[in-house]
Amino acid sequence: MANKHQGSCLCGRVKYELSGDFQSFFLCHCIRCQKDTGSAHAANLFSKASTLTWLKGESDVKTYQHPNSMHAKSFCQICGSALPTIAESINSAVVPAGSLDSIISIEPTAKIFVGSSANWSRNLDNVPSYEELPGQVKN
């Protein structure tokens, strides 16, 4: 029996379940993923031959397909959270890792398109880490 994974958007209007196993988990540094996440990379899991079921809020899900490319992004039209997309060209569900409420049992497979990495994201080993927002920026 296939694994079941649950996920949702930030505002909670959309909930989904994916039945299937993840074969790969890519951290994509391409320019398109930087633009659509507003961050250094996208973190997407790929599942072939899986079933995506919208449990709640399917009418709030919108999909943007970038012209002349395989790049697509589904999102909640209320809060903007990234949500799974069915990529028919590769017969896979593409699931943003951050949208999952279930524990992910697969480690990232690879960083891809690293030649396009944002210059500010390349040497982060010496950047301080905090459990929460640091005091100097709190109001």
Task: Produce a short descriptive summary.
One of its GO terms (molecular function) is metal ion binding. Helix content is 5%, strand content 37%.
Quote the CATH topology: Metal Binding Protein, Guanine Nucleotide Exchange Factor, Chain A
Task: Indicate the overall shape.
Answer: globular
Distance between the termini: 50 Å
CATH class label: Mainly Beta
Which bin fits the share of residues in helices? under 10%
Largest sheet: 5 strands, mixed
Pfam families: GFA
Protein name: Glutathione-dependent formaldehyde-activating enzyme
Family: Belongs to the Gfa family.
Organism: Vibrio quintilis
Describe the structure.
- This protein has 139 residues and is mostly beta strands.
- The chain has a single domain, classed as Metal Binding Protein, Guanine Nucleotide Exchange Factor, Chain A, CATH 2.170.150.
- Helix content is 5%, strand content 37%.
- The protein has one helix spanning 31-37, and strands at residues 4-8, 15-19, 24-28, 42-48, 51-56, 61-65, 72-76, 82-83, 85-87, 92-96, 110-112.
- It has a five-stranded mixed sheet with strand order 9-10-4-3-11. Strands 1-2-5 form a three-stranded antiparallel sheet, with no helix packed on it. Strands 6-7-8 form a three-stranded antiparallel sheet, with no helix packed on it.
- The chain is globular and about 40 Å long.
